[in-house]
Task: inverse folding
C-alpha cells in the first residue's frame, strides 16, 4: 500500500431513486432483444395513434369499397395489395392496430383491476372469504378460456366493448391467484404489522402498504399478457365472433382472407404478420421487464 | 515413479474482469499409502488443484500456463478426454464436501453406484471380478454385486436392501459413506477428497476420517485430502501441504510441519486454531495478509 | 398412492359439479335466446312457447339444473336446441378427431422440444442455441391460425406435398374404428394406405398446433437443464467417469423433467381449448368446430358439454402430472 492512495468518496449528485432507475435501465439494455421489443411496441403505438392521419385510404376502413381494384397484388400504390372489395389492405391493417392495441390494453387493465381486488381481499382476509373466492377462481381456471370468451362474446353480441368484457372475464382469475400469493407473502412483513399497530384500516394497509410493494410482478405479467390479449382478440375475430366488418380488425381480416387463399395470399399475410409482430414485441418487452423487475426469476 | 507428481502447475481463470492467475506453480508428490492433507484458506486454490488432477476444470475459462500432472507416469494435462474419462472412477476417485447435494436426488443410490461400477468395469473387467469377454448380463449382475460390497465396506448396514433407497432416506454421514463407496467402487489408486467432513457434525466427522484411514491401510492407495481444518490434518494425514494464494508455502511430513513450522503463515495458521486452553476472546484470525509477506 | 388418486378423483367430481352449476348460471344470466334462434324468424309466439316447454325452459332454474345434473350421471348431457340431437353422442363423435390432433401436436412438441432444450443448454451460446432460441421466441408469438394458413400456402398450395384441409377424403374408406384415431386405427388394421392418408391430413394441423408448446417446452427444458448442470451431483458423476451422454440423457434429464412436466400438463388444456382455431383453418371435424357452431346459435347445452369434457380431460391430466411428479421426484409424498 502506498502513501498516495486515498479513499475518495464520490460526490452523489443523483437521488437514489434515480440511480435505481438508471440501474434498471442499464440491465434492460443488456438484453438487446428486449430493446427490440420496446422499439417495436413504441412504433406500434405511434402508428396506431397516427393511423387516421397517415393512411392512404382512410375511407376504406369505414366500409367504402372500390371493386374496380379488387385483388391487386402488393405494389407501390397498395403496399400490401387490395382485398376482395378493392380496399387497400395497408390502410385496413394500420387502422386495425387501433382496435387490437386498445382492446388488448383494455382487457389487461380490467383483468388487473378485478383480479387484484379479488386476490388482495382473499389474501388479506384469508379464512372463508379466501376459500370462497379462490374456489370460484379455480373453477374459472379449469374452463378453457377461449371457449368461454367465445360463448360470452356471442351471447353479448358483436362489438368491441362486448368482446373486451368477454375476454376480461376469462383473464382476471390468473391475476387474482398471483396477487393473493403476493399479498399473503407481504402480510406478515414488519412494515405491514407496524401499520396495523398504528391503527390503519385494511383498505389503507392494502392500498398504501401492500399493493405498492407487489407492483413489479403484476407489471411483468401484464406486459407478457398484452401480447396474448392481442392474440385472443384476433382469435375471436378469426372464428367470426368479435369485431364485425367494416371495423377493421386483424383477426377478422385474416378470417375474410382465408376464403381467397391460396390465390390471393397477400390478403392474409399482412394482417397475420401484424398480429405476429405485436405479440412478439410485447413478449420480448415482457421478458426484458421480468429481468429488470424480478431479478429472482432471472436465468 | 510416484503415484502423483505435480510439478510447477500454473492455472489461470478467465472471468468478465479479465484473466487472473489462480495457481502459481504447485509442486506436490504423492506416493501410495500416503495421506496428504492440503490446508489453506478459502480461495487459496486447494480445490482447484484437486479438480485439476481429475481434469474437471473446463478450459476455457481455465487455462494451464505451465506445469504437468504426472499420474503413474502419464501427464494428465496431455491425455485425451477419452483416456481421461477412463482414468476417472477407475484410477482416480473423488469425493466432495456436501453429501446432501452430491448424490443425485431422483435416483436410487444403487443406480448411481452401478453406473460407476459399470464404467470402471468397462475400463477394467477385473474390478468386477470378470474377464474381458463377459456378457452384458454378467456385467450388470457383477456391477450390482460390487455395489453392494462397496456399501458394506464403508459400513452401511443391510446394504443389500438399502441399495434401492433414495438419497433422502439416508442421514448426512451415511450419504457421505455412500459417496465414498461410489468413489472407491472402481478400486482407484488415488482418492481426492475435497473437504469430505466439513458439512458433517463432529462425531460423524471422526467416523468418516477413520473410514478413509482404514481404506488407505487396506488398499494401499494415495489420498489427497483437501481441508481447511488443521485438526483433521493432525488426526489422519501423514503429510501436509500449506497453501496460500495459489502457492504451496510449506510441505512435508505432518509432524515436521505442525511441530516445527518454518513458515510465518503456517505459524499464524497454527496459532489461530482454538484449543481447550484458549480463553474467551482469545480466538485469533488471520487478517490482512498479503502474499508478498510470505513469498 | 391409490388413496391419493381416489381422493383426487372425489375432489374432481366435486369440482365438476361446481363447474356445471357455474356454467348453468352463467348461461342463464347472459342475454341470448337460443329457442328464438332455433325456431327461426317466422315462428309464432305459440311455437316458441311450445319449444320452451319441450326443452324444459319454462321450469324454474333450480329445477332445470337438477334435471340436468341427474341426467348427466345417466349419460344424458342435454339436447341441442338447434339440431335436436343429444349432446353426449355428438361429443363422442367429435372428440376423437380433436384428441388425435392434440396428442399428435403434444407428441411433436415433447419429442422435439425436450432433446432440443437439453442440447441448447449444453451448447449454450452456440449457433444452435441462438438459432433455436430466436425461433422459440417467434414460435410462442405465432398465432396458430396464421401459422396454419402459411403452412397451407407452402406445403399444400405451392409445393403440393400435403392435402390442404380435411381429416379424411370422403371417397376413401376410413379404417375400422377402434380408438377413433384414424392414424392409430389404420395401423391396427395394418392398412398402410389409409395410414398414409390419415397422417398426411394430420401433419399440417398438428405442426400448426405444436409450435407454441414446442417452443415453451424447449425454453423450460433449457432453463432447468442449465440449472441442473450446475448441481454438485453432476460434478460427482463427471468426476467418477460417467460419460457425458449418460449424465445428460439419464441423470440430468430426469431432474430437469419435473418443472417441464407442469408446462406439458398446462398445455393439454391450452391445446384442447384452442383447437377451434386450427380446426377452423383446416376444416378439421372436431370439438372446436362443434362448439363454434353451438356458440354462434347460442345453443348452450353443447357449449356446456364441450366445456365439461375439456375440464374433465384437464383435471385428469393434472392428476397424471401429479402422479408423474412422484415418478420423477421420489421425495414427493402423496398427501
Result:
Amino acid at each position: 500500500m502506498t502513501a498516495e492512495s486515498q479513499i475518495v468518496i464520490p460526490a452523489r449528485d443523483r437521488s437514489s431513486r434515480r440511480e435505481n432507475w438508471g440501474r434498471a435501465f442499464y440491465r434492460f439494455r443488456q438484453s438487446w432483444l428486449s430493446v427490440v421489443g420496446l422499439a417495436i411496441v413504441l412504433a406500434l403505438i405511434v402508428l396506431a395513434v397516427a393511423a387516421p392521419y397517415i393512411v392512404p385510404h382512410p375511407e376504406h376502413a369505414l366500409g367504402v369499397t372500390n371493386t374496380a381494384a379488387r385483388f391487386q397484388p402488393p405494389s407501390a400504390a397498395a403496399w400490401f395489395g387490395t382485398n376482395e372489395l378493392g380496399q387497400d389492405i395497408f390502410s385496413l391493417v394500420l387502422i386495425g392496430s387501433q382496435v387490437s392495441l386498445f382492446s388488448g390494453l383494455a382487457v389487461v387493465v380490467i383483468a388487473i383491476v378485478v383480479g387484484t381486488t379479488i386476490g388482495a381481499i382473499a389474501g388479506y382476509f384469508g379464512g372463508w372469504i379466501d376459500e370462497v373466492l379462490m374456489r370460484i377462481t379455480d373453477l374459472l381456471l379449469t374452463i378453457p378460456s377461449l371457449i368461454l370468451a367465445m360463448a360470452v362474446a356471442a351471447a353479448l353480441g358483436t362489438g368491441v366493448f362486448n368482446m373486451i368484457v368477454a375476454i376480461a372475464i376469462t383473464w382476471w382469475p390468473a391475476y387474482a391467484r398471483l396477487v393473493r400469493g403476493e399479498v399473503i407473502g407481504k402480510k406478515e412483513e414488519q412494515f405491514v404489522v407496524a401499520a396495523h399497530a398504528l391503527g390503519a384500516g385494511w383498505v389503507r394497509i392494502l392500498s398504501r402498504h401492500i399493493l405498492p410493494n407487489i407492483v413489479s410482478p403484476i407489471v411483468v405479467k401484464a406486459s407478457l399478457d398484452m401480447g396474448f390479449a392481442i392474440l385472443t382478440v384476433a382469435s375471436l375475430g378469426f372464428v367470426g365472433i368479435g369485431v364485425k366488418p367494416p371495423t377493421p380488425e386483424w383477426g377478422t381480416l385474416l378470417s375474410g382472407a382465408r376464403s381467397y387463399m391460396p390465390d390471393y395470399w397477400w390478403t392474409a399475410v399482412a394482417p397475420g404478420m401484424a398480429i405476429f409482430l405485436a405479440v412478439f414485441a410485447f413478449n420480448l418487452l415482457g421478458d426484458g421487464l421480468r429481468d429488470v423487475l424480478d431479478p429472482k426469476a432471472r436465468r | 515413479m510416484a503415484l502423483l507428481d505435480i510439478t510447477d502447475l500454473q492455472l489461470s481463470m478467465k472471468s468478465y474482469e479479465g484473466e487472473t492467475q489462480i495457481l502459481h506453480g504447485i509442486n506436490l508428490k504423492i506416493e501410495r499409502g500416503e495421506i496428504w492433507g492440503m490446508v489453506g484458506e478459502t480461495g487459496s486454490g486447494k480445490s482447484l488443484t484437486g479438480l485439476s488432477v481429475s481434469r474437471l476444470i473446463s478450459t476455457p475459462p481455465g487455462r494451464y500456463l505451465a506445469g504437468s500432472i504426472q499420474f503413474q507416469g502419464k501427464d494428465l494435462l496431455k491425455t485425451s478426454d477419452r483416456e481421461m474419462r477412463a482414468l476417472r472412477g477407475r484410477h482416480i476417485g473423488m469425493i466432495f464436501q456436501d453429501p446432501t447435494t452430491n448424490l443425485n436426488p431422483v435416483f436410487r443410490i444403487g443406480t448411481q453406484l452401478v453406473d460407476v461400477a459399470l464404467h470402471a468395469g468397462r475400463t477394467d473387467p477385473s474390478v468386477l471380478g470378470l474377464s474381458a469377454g463377459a456378457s452384458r448380463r454378467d456385467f450388470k449382475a457383477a456391477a450390482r454385486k460390487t455395489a453392494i460390497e462397496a456399501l458394506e465396506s464403508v459400513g452401511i448396514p443391510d446394504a443389500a436392501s438399502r441399495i434401492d433407497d433414495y438419497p433422502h432416506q439416508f442421514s448426512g454421514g451415511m450419504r457421505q459413506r455412500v459417496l465414498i463407496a461410489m468413489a472407491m467402487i472402481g478400486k482407484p489408486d488415488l482418492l481426492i477428497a475435497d473437504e469430505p467432513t466439513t458439512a458433517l457434525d463432529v462425531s460423524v466427522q471422526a467416523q468418516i476420517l477413520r473410514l478413509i484411514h482404514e481404506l488407505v491401510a487396506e488398499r494401499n492407495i494415495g489420498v489427497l485430502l483437501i481441508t481447511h481444518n488443521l485438526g483433521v490434518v493432525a488426526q489422519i494425514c501423514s503429510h501436509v501441504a500449506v497453501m496460500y494464494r495459489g502457492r504451496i508455502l510449506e510441505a512435508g511430513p505432518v509432524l515436521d510441519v505442525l511441530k516445527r513450522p518454518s513458515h510465518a503463515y503456517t505459524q499464524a495458521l497454527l496459532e489461530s486454531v482454538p484449543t481447550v486452553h484458549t480463553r474467551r476472546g482469545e480466538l485469533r484470525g488471520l487478517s490482512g495478509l498479503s502474499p508478498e509477506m510470505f513469498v | 398412492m391409490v388413496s391419493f388418486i381416489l381422493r383426487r378423483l372425489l375432489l374432481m367430481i366435486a369440482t365438476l359439479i361446481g363447474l356445471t352449476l357455474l356454467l348453468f348460471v352463467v348461461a342463464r344470466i347472459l342475454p341470448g335466446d337460443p329457442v328464438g334462434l332455433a325456431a327461426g324468424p317466422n315462428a309464432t309466439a305459440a311455437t316458441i312457447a311450445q319449444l320452451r316447454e319441450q326443452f324444459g325452459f319454462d321450469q324454474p332454474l333450480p329445477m332445470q339444473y337438477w334435471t340436468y345434473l341427474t341426467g348427466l350421471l345417466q349419460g344424458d348431457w342435454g339436447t341441442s336446441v338447434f339440431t335436436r340431437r343429444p349432446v353426449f353422442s355428438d361429443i363422442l363423435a367429435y372428440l376423437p378427431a380433436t384428441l388425435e390432433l392434440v396428442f399428435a401436436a403434444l407428441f411433436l412438441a415433447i419429442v422435439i422440444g425436450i432433446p432440443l432444450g437439453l442440447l441448447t443448454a449444453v451448447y449454450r451460446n452456440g449457433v444452435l442455441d441462438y438459432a433455436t432460441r430466436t425461433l422459440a421466441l417467434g414460435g410462442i408469438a405465432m398465432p396458430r391460425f396464421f401459422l396454419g394458413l402459411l403452412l397451407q400456402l407452402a406445403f399444400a398450395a405451392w409445393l403440393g406435398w400435403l392435402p390442404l384441409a380435411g381429416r379424411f377424403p370422403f371417397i376413401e374408406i376410413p379404417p375400422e374404428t377402434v380408438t377413433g384415431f384414424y392414424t392409430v386405427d389404420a395401423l391396427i388394421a395394418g392398412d398402410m394406405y389409409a395410414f398414409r392418408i390419415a397422417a398426411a391430413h394430420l401433419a399440417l394441423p398438428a405442426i400448426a398446433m405444436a409450435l407454441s408448446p414446442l417452443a415453451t417446452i424447449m425454453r423450460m427444458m433449457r432453463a432447468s437443464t442449465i440449472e441442473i448442470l450446475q448441481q454438485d451431483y453432476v460434478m460427482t458423476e463427471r468426476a467418477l467417469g460417467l460419460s457425458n451422454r449418460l449424465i445428460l440423457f439419464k441423470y440430468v434429464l430426469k431432474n430437469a423433467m419435473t418443472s417441464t412436466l407442469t408446462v406439458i400438463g398446462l398445455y393439454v388444456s391450452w391445446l384442447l381449448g384452442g383447437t377451434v382455431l386450427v380446426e377452423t383453418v383446416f376444416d378439421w371435424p372436431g370439438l372446436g368446430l362443434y362448439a363454434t357452431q353451438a356458440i354462434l346459435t347460442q345453443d348452450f347445452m353443447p357449449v356446456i358439454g364441450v366445456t365439461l369434457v375439456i375440464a374433465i380431460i384437464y383435471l385428469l391430466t393434472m392428476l397424471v402430472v401429479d402422479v408423474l411428479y412422484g415418478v420423477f421426484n421420489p421425495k414427493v409424498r402423496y398427501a
Q: What stands out?
A: DSSP finds 13 helices and no strands in chain C. Residues 213 and 270 of chain C are 9 Å apart (CA to CA). Chain C has two domains: 2-73, 88-332.
